């Protein structure tokens, strides 16, 4: 049976990506994966690892071309927050750090509130607040 899950994303420049995500308040592992061309981004309370690999290394692992994020979305990474205000704050931090967002934060289904930002390499991050007390069963 599987033991862990981690995601791998191609980036043009690991140092710039680390600086970007650090400005958003994320942390990185200093153990395995912390090299000149890769970084282990830690996400959430369980420290899910999102490995950031510079494009040549990623291309070698994937044995495939890298998706052109300017033409499409290869994955939507969703993360949750503790409040609507934190959704807005994290999205604004992403913009201030050089990311993009043309998505207006909005309520969805009466129990979710979310926004979207695009990181330096075009990866889309869906930032959500979910009020589970309002969720219909």
TrEMBL record:
Pfam families documented for this protein: Ble-like_N
A molecular-function term among this protein's GO annotations: dioxygenase activity
Signal peptide: none
Presence of the UniProt keyword Oxidoreductase in the record: yes
Top-level taxon of origin: Bacteria
Alphabetized UniProt keyword annotations: Dioxygenase, Oxidoreductase
InterPro entries on file: Glyas_Bleomycin-R_OHBP_Dase, Glyoxy/Ble-like_N
UniProt domain Glyoxalase/Bleomycin resistance-like N-terminal: residue ranges: 5-30
PANTHER family in alphabetical order: BLR2408 PROTEIN, BLR2520 PROTEIN
Full protein name: Extradiol dioxygenase
Protein's organism: Imperialibacter roseus
Lineage: Bacteria, Pseudomonadati, Bacteroidota, Cytophagia, Cytophagales
